[in-house]
Design a protein that fits this description.
Blueprint (H helix, E strand, L loop, with lengths): L18 H9 L12 H20 L6 H19 L4 H25 L3 H28 L3 E3 L2 E4 L11 H19 L3 H13 L1 H6 L3 H18 L1 H21 L4 H9 L10 H19 L10 H8 L8 E5 L2 E6 L7 H34 L2 H20 L11 H15 L8 H6 L1
Antiparallel strand pairs: 1-2, 3-4
Helix pairs in contact: 1-2, 1-5, 2-4, 3-4, 3-14, 4-16, 5-6, 5-15, 6-7, 6-9, 6-15, 9-10, 9-15, 12-13, 12-14, 14-15, 14-16, 15-16
Length: 437
């Protein structure tokens, strides 16, 4: 009997189960339609879930451990209760679907499809590649004044996400820096260390030109934690190299020096003549806290923050933020969330949501760090970038929340962190499957 040959190239076959995850990341490089909350990557995430379901059925074994069921089951309870308190049925359905997609379905799908550390590397490098692509577009937008509007000039780097998702490129580039930093610190091959380090340094420029203060802070914290986990001596060298690149770009060439200085200064200007964006941010934070005080247990309901905002915000809050440029006309963007994921969960889902949803994130972080302490060698080299991605998300949630086409990258990062935190061995595949590979 003749053996049927595969039509796929031999180097692709070992990574076949994880290709749907890579496809979701790659599709984020496509342009997004204006005023669209979805993207081709969102559609691909649905196929990703179906592939994971089929993979679990074919393997004919229990796909999740008890710990994993607990970590992913608790958020569903909190989200469902908050959906029951939504103002309309439409808000309940869309809010429930989005939360479950980002924090349950896609992470579980990634957890099921990633089998071992060899499957993690293509996903991490796809994150770096996506960041380089979006970052190159962002730098071009700054140099040619074709980016989003910022202080009267179209110089803000937003990549293909446009001004309607102004944080999209910043998030993607920042995650690329974190992934590249972890790969550089954990790689044993000198060539891979050099390539990853150069990618991380190259991405610093588009991250700076995004003018995203929250992404700057989260990146500094995540990369700093990775460096400390890798060793103090190596951390000192990398910090020195990053500082030198920053001095050359900003001090030597003057790349966005004035705008960057103003943006950095505005982080701490809360009472001393802050800009309007800072005023709006803290006013919306206060409004979210006030909503929670009135509805402490279950919150005001999913997607109900905009309806209750004006009744709890002070007169200092503006009517919206100005957006434009990057191929889109000027428009007034309404402020529909507090731009703080923890306060958004607290205001819309109350203490129940905080304990179930945010509690699952903290459980993942603790389990991931515990595994980092217990493992070493090549497996620890994979844990460095994965833990960095999770830490970046949790820090960035203090300055941002989910929303927009770039949100799906958050789900992928939670999925990678879930594989690292919730699997005990080097691989999730049975021994016979690993031998067959």
């Amino acid at each position: 009997m003749r053996r049927v040959r595969s039509v796929l190239p031999r180097p692709v076959l070992p990574f076949l189960p994880v290709l749907p995850v890579v496809a979701v990341v790659v599709l984020l490089g496509l342009p997004v339609a204006p005023d669209s909350a979805a993207s081709p990557a969102d559609a691909a995430s649905g196929l990703l879930v179906l592939c994971a379901l089929g993979h679990a059925v074919l393997r004919a074994r229990r796909p999740l451990t008890r710990t994993a069921l607990m970590v992913f089951g608790l958020p569903v309870v909190g989200i469902a209760v908050a959906a029951a308190g939504a103002m309309t049925a439409g808000d309940a359905i869309t809010g429930l679907a989005r939360y479950v997609q980002v924090f349950v379905l896609v992470p579980v799908a990634v957890l099921l499809l990633v089998r071992d550390r060899r499957d993690i590397r293509p996903v991490l490098w796809s994150l770096v590649g996506l960041a380089l692509w979006q970052g190159a577009i962002g730098v071009k937008q700054y140099l040619t004044a074709t980016g989003a509007s910022y202080q009267g000039a179209n110089i803000r780097a937003v990549g293909t996400f446009g001004p309607s998702d102004v944080m999209g490129m910043a998030n993607v580039v920042a995650l690329g820096i974190v992934a590249a930093t972890g790969l550089a610190l954990g790689a044993r091959e000198r060539r891979q260390r050099v390539v990853a380090a150069l990618c991380a340094l190259a991405l610093l420029l588009p991250l700076a030109l995004s003018f995203s203060r929250g992404a700057w802070i989260a990146t500094a914290v995540a990369c700093g934690a990775q460096l400390l986990l890798a060793g103090l001596r190596r951390a000192a060298k990398v910090f020195a190299a990053a500082a030198a690149v920053t001095v050359v770009l900003v001090g030597g060439f003057g790349v966005g020096a004035t705008a960057l200085e103003e943006r950095l200064t505005s982080i701490t200007q809360v009472t001393d003549a802050p800009d309007q964006s800072v005023i709006d941010r803290y006013t919306m934070w206060a409004a979210a806290a006030d909503m929670w005080h009135e509805h402490p247990v279950s919150g005001v309901g999913l997607k109900a923050y905009p309806a209750h905002r004006d009744g709890h915000a002070s007169l200092a809050l503006s009517s919206g933020s100005d957006t434009g440029g990057a191929g889109q006309a000027f428009r007034r963007q309404p402020l529909l969330s507090p731009h703080n994921m923890y306060l958004l969960v607290l205001s819309e889902q109350g203490l129940l949501g905080l304990l179930t949803v945010v509690g699952s994130w903290l459980a993942l972080l603790l389990l991931a760090l515990r595994r980092m302490r217990r493992t070493g060698g090549r497996l620890r080299a994979v844990g460095l970038p994965v833990c960095g991605l999770l830490l970046w998300q949790l820090v960035n949630f203090a300055y941002a929340d989910i929303g927009g086409p770039s949100t799906i990258i958050t789900a992928v990062c939670f999925g990678l962190a879930s594989w690292w935190a919730l699997t005990d061995g080097e691989t999730t595949a049975p021994a016979t499957e690993s031998a067959a590979r």
